[in-house]
Amino acid sequence: NNYGINKGSNMGSNVTRSLPDAIIIGVKKGGTRALLEYLRLHPKVRATGPEPHFFDRNYEKGFEWYRQHMPASTKGQLTIEKTPSYFVTNGVPEKVYKMSKKTKLIIVLRDPVTRAISDYAQLASRRPSVKTFEELAFIDNRTKIVDTSWPIIKIGIYIQHLVKWLEYFPIGQIHFVSGENLIKEPTYEMKLVQEFLGLEPMINDSYFSFNNTKGFPCFKKQPNSSRFQCLNRDKGRLHPDLSHSVIKRLRDFYRPFNARIYQITGHNFGWT
Ligand code: A3P
């Protein structure tokens, strides 16, 4: 088996590649890129650039392949990757558990209604001929029965995915980040994430500046640098305008599932 390779082969001196200590497993469009880029500001964090998609697309390549896709790190540094599809892919919780049952899991949760609209905006930007949101979200437009088989709807039923992770990991090993609050109070959310990861809190207010043009926080790579960097243009897209009745229908649909998420996490995310 592969379990013995966690701390990896020696690349000379003290530098090596390690399997991840923590994984941002979801959710798609939750703010996962922002979180990873913020975490990377910490000197004790080494993070992947692209999403490795190991547990959902490349698992047969083995843990050694996975380890080679991790950034070089030194002892005492945490290795972190993010692949948001892990959260909703069958079989992934067990595979992560088999790598290491100590893996720390992080999920950025965002109002499932705005998450769906954001996901659709991304889809439409890549495939302009796509059907309208309403055509895809409802089984038929008259009854407005929500089509739960449409992935963009299904991803937002967070509780259904979360229970599958809880079969393998205790809730205390999963940290939930509010996607909304990550935009409003990045310093506060980063304080909680750093605590969860056992990191000395270093990513503080001095790293962030809210960019009013972009409508999002931008960040600097060094605390004493004067240059703030923002995420790419594909983060913070314009959302399509949907009618109030469509939004209300979706809100009503998600409400009971959201309530169970609040209950299980002990946190009211405020998605009304
Ligand atoms: P929108 O494009 O709908 O606004 P992910 O990285 O998981 O795909 O999430 C993308 C979302 O991250 C964006 O969705 C945006 O709301 C959110 N976000 C959070 N912090 C951001 C930041 N600093 N810059 C840009 N987008 C950010």
Outline the structure in words.
36% of the residues lie in helices and 13% in strands. It is built from eleven helices and nine strands. The protein has a five-stranded parallel beta sheet with strand order 3-5-2-6-7. The site of adenosine-3'-5'-diphosphate has 17 residues, from helix 1, helix 9 and strand 9.
Topology of helices and strands:
Layout: E1 16-17, E2 22-26, H1 32-39, E3 45-47, H2 54-57, H3 63-68, E4 72-73, E5 78-82, H4 92-99, E6 104-109, H5 112-126, H6 133-137, H7 151-154, H8 158-166, E7 174-178, H9 179-184, H10 186-196, E8 208-211, E9 216-219, H11 244-265
Parallel strand pairs: 2-5, 2-6, 3-5, 6-7
Antiparallel strand pairs: 1-4, 8-9
The structure holds adenosine-3'-5'-diphosphate.
Adenosine-3'-5'-diphosphate is lined by residues 28-34, 84, 118, 182-183, 216-217, 231, 235-237.
